[in-house]
Amino acid sequence: MKTLGDVQVGGSSTIVKLHGEGALRRHLMDLGLIKGTPFTVVKVAPLGDPVEVTVRGYELSLRKADAEMIEVE
């Protein structure tokens, strides 16, 4: 299973599934991270946390732990 955290800087992919439950999953969906949404990884902080992605026309920073819950193709 490949996750958003595995995508390299400059790489693009599409969201396949959100893992996790409850409020966090709902929050990620409210941010526009839903199945079939394409995104591009813009940059990653030096220690790997956070990860900045461009999704639906805006930049979004995600914690590494949250990025690992997003399955991509």
Please, could you describe this protein's structure?
This protein has about 70 residues and is of the alpha+beta class. The chain contains two helices and six strands, in the order E-E-H-E-E-E-H-E. The chain has a six-stranded antiparallel β-sheet. A hairpin with a 6-residue loop joins strand 3 and strand 4. The longest helix has 9 residues. The mean pLDDT is about 90.
Concise summary:
The protein has 73 residues and is of the alpha+beta class. Helices cover 18% and strands 40% of the residues. Strands 1-6-2-3-4-5 form a 6-stranded antiparallel sheet.
How many helices? The count is: 2
The global form is globular
Structural class label:
alpha+beta
Strand content: 35-45%
Q: Describe the sheet with the most strands.
A: 6 strands, antiparallel
User: How many β-strand runs?
Assistant: 6
Biggest β-sheet: strands ordered side by side in the sheet: 1-6-2-3-4-5
Mean pLDDT: 91
Question: What are the secondary-structure elements, in order, as H or E?
Answer: EEHEEEHE
Which radius of gyration do the C-alpha atoms yield?
11 Å
Poorly predicted regions: none
Distance linking N and C termini:
8 Å
Residues in helix, %: 10-25%
